Amino acid sequence: MDDQETVKAQALRLVTARFPHALGAMLGGSAAQGRATPTSDLDVAVLLPDSDTSRREVVRHDGRLAELFLHTVGDVPKFFEWDRARRRGTVLFIYDQGLPLTDPHGHVARTCELARAVLAAGPVPLTPAEWEHGRYVLTCYMDDLVDTPPADRYEQLSLADHTLREAVHLVTAYHGAWTGIGKWLPRRLLSADPTRGKALLEGHQVVAERADPAPLATAVQQVLDLLGGPLREGYTQHWPT
């Protein structure tokens, strides 16, 4: 693991060099949690004056890749609502759990307070139509996974991945919890529901290691039971008009 202070200093040099007009910045992700490796990228949120533009940039600085979340002060509230609607809260968590790099005028402190209020409100709940669609999709993935012979490994593994992602989407929504992608998918899942989350992740692992879909299908069935059971015949989706 990289030394946290070393990574903080590296991130601050990046902000100072590229955004001398910045109103503040936060370091998030693995680096802020002391889990960064020498090849980890840096997640940095930068506050800009309203004369600038909000955007996302990926750069390399001092030989290290960095993902920059750049927002003007005026854009922050509406961006936080957009981040909440996605139910992942990527930038919200940077301001909630990250490490301040610079905050000469208190803008970062105020943004952190707003982020914590939005996180406390939780992600936007699913609508009845979204719940029904999720149940139907997860049921389809589960059925296809069970029906796919182990010899069709490419298809089986693809189905296992889609099944897990859809199950995580529904489990986290059921608990009113934030979801995630990539390495944050298992972290958010286990935080929201340790028991069902472990069953889903271990079932997915068994598919990968032993080509056996039964444990994952059992775990998915338990998720569906929370939501009214599998949904097959009788499902209707109305197209937007």
Structure overview:
This protein has 241 residues and is α+β, with helices and mostly antiparallel strands. The chain is built from 10 helices and 5 strands. A 5-stranded mixed beta sheet has the order 3-4-2-1-5, with helices on both faces. Helix 6 runs antiparallel to helix 10 (214-226) and helix 7 (153-174) runs antiparallel to helix 9. The mean pLDDT is 95.
Give me some keywords for this one.
single chain, alpha+beta, five-stranded mixed sheet, 10 helices
Overall mean confidence score, pLDDT = 95
Shape: globular
CATH homologous superfamily label of the largest domain: Beta Polymerase, domain 2
Number of helices: 10
Low-pLDDT runs of 5+ residues are none
* CATH domain class of the largest domain: Alpha Beta
Q: What is the second-level CATH architecture of the largest domain?
A: 2-Layer Sandwich
In helices, the fraction of residues equals 55-70%
- What structural category do the secondary elements indicate? alpha+beta
Task: Strand order, main sheet: write it out.
Answer: 3-4-2-1-5
Number of domains: 2
Q: Please name the CATH topology of the largest domain.
A: Beta Polymerase, domain 2
Write the layout of secondary structure elements.
Layout (H helix, E strand, L loop, with lengths): L3 H15 L5 E5 H4 L9 E7 L6 E7 L2 E9 L3 H11 L3 H8 L1 E4 L4 H15 L6 H20 L5 H22 L9 H9 L1 H17 L3 H13 L15
Parallel strand pairs: 2-4
Antiparallel strand pairs: 1-2, 1-5, 3-4
Helix pairs in contact: 3-5, 4-5, 6-7, 6-10, 7-8, 7-9, 7-10, 8-9, 9-10
